[in-house]
């Protein structure tokens, strides 16, 4: 019986952490899982990073993407310092051990492929295939 009570307690913690039933439902809809854990930190894009040592290694650290991106979240929206911690390359998160900022480093930008902000070069080459135009009446 105590196993069921502990599962119920963890479910309640997950609901509480996501801001109630509606927030938990929305998070479950976005990510197909409902987790609970300790908030480790937040990056400049609004992504939140969590850890729960009760989960298996490889599944015990995760990111909750910013609400600003909605369903258009992508792995390239994670900055390199958090990528290091998230993928177990280092044990210390950037909140406790910030990376050394070098003069040659540039700020992180997410991959914009397939978005309206993407740079698309103008082509001067004549296309090999032309579109069909219906006959004019």
UniProtKB/TrEMBL annotation:
InterPro entries per record: NDUFA12 (IPR007763)
Subunit: Complex I is composed of 45 different subunits.
Keyword Transport: yes
GO biological process, one term: response to oxidative stress
Stated family: Belongs to the complex I NDUFA12 subunit family.
Mitochondrion keyword on record: yes
UniProt subcellular location: Mitochondrion inner membrane
This protein's name: NADH dehydrogenase [ubiquinone] 1 alpha subcomplex subunit 12
Pfam families recorded: NDUFA12
Membrane topology (UniProt): Peripheral membrane protein
Keywords, sorted A to Z: Electron transport, Membrane, Mitochondrion, Mitochondrion inner membrane, Respiratory chain, Transport
Organism listed in the record: Ridgeia piscesae (Tubeworm)
Function: Accessory subunit of the mitochondrial membrane respiratory chain NADH dehydrogenase (Complex I), that is believed not to be involved in catalysis. Complex I functions in the transfer of electrons from NADH to the respiratory chain. The immediate electron acceptor for the enzyme is believed to be ubiquinone.
One GO CC term on file: mitochondrial inner membrane
Predominant location category: mitochondrion
């Amino acid at each position: 019986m105590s196993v069921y009570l502990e599962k119920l307690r963890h479910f309640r913690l997950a609901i509480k952490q996501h801001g109630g039933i509606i927030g938990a439902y929305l998070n479950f809809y976005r990510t197909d899982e409902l987790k609970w854990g300790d908030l480790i930190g937040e990056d400049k894009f609004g992504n939140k990073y969590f850890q729960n040592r009760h989960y298996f290694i490889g599944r015990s650290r995760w990111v909750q993407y910013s609400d600003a991106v909605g369903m258009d979240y992508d792995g390239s929206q994670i900055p390199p310092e958090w990528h290091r911690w998230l993928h177990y390359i280092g044990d210390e998160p950037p909140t406790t051990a910030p990376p050394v900022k070098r003069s040659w480093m540039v700020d992180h930008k997410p991959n914009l492929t397939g978005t309206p902000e993407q740079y698309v070069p103008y082509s001067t080459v004549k296309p090999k295939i032309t579109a069909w135009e219906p006959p004019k009446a």
